[in-house]
Amino acid sequence: MPDKTGAGGALAFTPVIGIEIHIQLKTKSKVFCSCSADYTNDEPNSHICPVCMGLPGSMPVLNKTVVQQGMLAGMALNCTVQPTTYFFRKSYYYPDLPKGYQITQSDLPIAANGWLDIKDDAGNPKRIRINRLHLEEDVGKLHHSAADGRLEGAESSWVDYNRSGLPLAEIVSEPDVSSAYEAVEYVTMLRRRVRYVGASDVDLEKGMMRFDANVSVKCSDGRWGRRVEVKNMNSFRALERAIEYEIKRQSKILADGGEVLQETRHWNDVKGTTTASRVKEFYRKFIVEPDLPPLVVLPQWVEEVRATLPEMPNEKALRYVREMGLSEIDAAVLTDSIDVARYFEACVAAGANPLRAGNWVRTEVLRAVNDRQIGVKDLAVKPDALAELIRRIDDGRLSTTGAKNVFEVMLEGSSLSLDEAVRKSGAVEGGVGADALENLVRATFAANPDVIEEIRSGKDTKGKKIKFLQGLVMRETKGQARPDEVVAAIETLLKSE
Ligand SMILES: [Zn+2]
């Protein structure tokens, strides 16, 4: 049995991990009222109403878009949409929950029995089964006065109900994950696919994706540790560190002959440790929500939603490799975001060579997008303009360096035509003239007689010296010359003198 725990010793420990993910579904309004779901940077408690504050007499009305987004997310995770589901009241008392209960589908979910295929630590394929995706409402957010923002040590606390009633999907995996690495693989793929279908923006910095992990370890001598629920991870890195920490902690307890307690622990990202939750687990009572009827999803609606699904990233990447000859790495980068994939495909559709277009998108385009902190849709250089630029490289009118200069100019002003951008960039179409190139090569020869001598005496068997000369000439032309023409000019002159 492999020891993935780092605890060492004669005993081996196998981690058994299930992951629960909350994602905020993309909607304009909250799940049971018409309060706006977009509250970023707004005053606390400025997006609230009697429904999401749970005032007496208020009635929840289910937002249809939430159901649709839940179906889309479920389909992205290979789940089956369930024809009939119910909402429950999960009762517990905490200040972030104004009603005293949370409305949730719990284990009668909108979608169930899915999976994602990931790679394990050794790079082998592995299937992580998904038990269910259920809809529920988010709770408010507590702010504590303690310097580290935690409840412990805080003199006072405030609560902001802007988040109360936002639509969430909770995605519960089976305990198929065996390492922190697999956990990150799983959540990375899940995030990409959910974003592909547009069900959520899954912006981690805005708290739109949050993780809990159920971690236990099995010892090679047959002993099992009990299941520990680790909460409060808000980034991939935190999830990875929390799981690693918890596996080591539990393995050490078992290695020392101790017993792992079943408990809820909180991840402290600053300290890099988990601590037992001081808050006693509430008695959670479930009753069917009497104010909401059963949710019946007709097959026709399911099919309408299914028809809107885009080609998913894995299938896209495989197609790029198969049909366009891209490398697997390039295909993976280009399909990571659906907007980038669409940009690339539009570029190819506009006539660009797929390999060159792929290279340009994954380097120049993504760099420009990252530098500017914008979406690829907002880039000033549109796919058809990039396709035309690439065509000019292919037919020899522009060198690669010249084209990059043109691209830089175009980034600054979308109103420029390609010809205007070429003029403004100073790039010379048609490269460097043959006479000018020959003169440059002659000058380079004259300045490097020892190198020419070495080549002529046959010592440059690997062509390194020719490459060296080519580099010198390219630099003189500021990259405007075409590399193959430079080599041809060097070889011609070598033969003629
Ligand atoms: Zn409201």
Small molecules bound in the structure, each named once: zinc ion
Estimated structural class: alpha+beta
Which of globular, elongated, flat, extended, rod-shaped describes the shape? elongated
- What's the main sheet like? 9 strands, mixed
Distance between the ends: 71 Å
Number of helices: 15
Helix content: 25-40%
Q: Tell me the number of strands.
A: 16
Task: Give the overall average pLDDT.
Answer: 90
Reading side by side through the largest sheet, how are the strands ordered? 2-6-7-10-1-11-12-13-14
The Rg value, from CA coordinates, equals: 30 Å
Number of domain modules: 3
Unreliable residue stretches: none
Strand content: 15-25%
Q: Layout of helices and strands, plus pairs?
A:
Elements: E1 13-24, H1 64-76, E2 80-81, E3 84-85, E4 88-91, E5 101-104, E6 111-119, E7 125-137, E8 141-144, E9 157-160, E10 167-173, H2 180-196, E11 209-219, E12 228-233, H3 236-255, E13 263-268, E14 273-276, E15 285-288, E16 295-296, H4 299-306, H5 313-324, H6 328-334, H7 338-349, H8 354-372, H9 383-394, H10 400-412, H11 418-425, H12 434-447, H13 449-456, H14 464-476, H15 483-496
Parallel strand pairs: 12-13
Antiparallel strand pairs: 1-10, 1-11, 2-6, 3-16, 4-5, 4-15, 6-7, 7-10, 8-9, 11-12, 13-14
Zinc ion binds near residues 30, 33 and 51.
